[in-house]
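Database export, one record per block. Field names are fixed; values are copied verbatim from the stored entry.
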Amino acid sequence: MPELPEVECIVRDLKEYLNGKKFTGVSFAFYNMLQGISPEAFEKEIRGEVIRDIKRKGKYILFFLSNDIILEVHLRMTGRLHYYPGPVDPQKYTGAVFYFESGDELHYQDVRKFGTFRLYAKQMLYKSKPCLLGLDPLAENFTLNSFSEMLKKNPGRMIKSFLLDQKYIAGMGNIYTDETLFRAGINPGRKVGSLSLKEINRLFESLLSTLKEGINCRGTSISDYRDIWGQEGEFQKRLKVYRREGSNCLRCGGAIRRKVVAGRGTYYCPVCQPL
């Protein structure tokens, strides 16, 4: 599943190429991504409207349209958005094609068909799923103090479980959580209340630096993720622990292990991240 860095890269690229452009229509090959609206009603709402802005909240992509309607997109497991500067024939797993007055096209592809599209009025944004999420790590209000306060309220939780909980931190997923914890030298099975102030500070800095490095590397392409041009990211070449079970730790030389933490497959170094 695309995590915060991947979705951030997609949004930055979409803003560069689609801001200010007008929809002329949309065609659907499958409809299960539409939430509470028919294909005909969906097209009626967006046809003739201009994209005023594109933002990200957690793993959600939000298109702000000129009629004060918001198009919310969640790529889920295998969804992709591909931008084309001109007409292109849809591929096998293309579920929707958005057409623009400029001739550009935006194709939504999804092998597993888990992605979702939703439309709602801008004044209802505060009730939407993206706005019910926790703090976004790239937002100004995500500070060491706000992070520490959240940790204080959850002393009994395992640190990995906490970092993955979208009610507290929006956008974190399995890859960047494992990498963050390794870089901070913290075992994913430790309880939040066991962390010292020094470890909390190290974890905060590690979280931000890992996400920013992922963005600078254009995301992680282990399986399905591609950017809007269909290109892979580069962060998979810098992974220290994720999916490296049995390989030597790049820091200490010990063996990377895998265990299930918070219901998720978790990779860590038992030497660098002692329990």
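Remark 1: The radius of gyration is 20 Å.
Remark 2: Residues 11 and 55 are 6 Å apart (CA to CA).
End of record.
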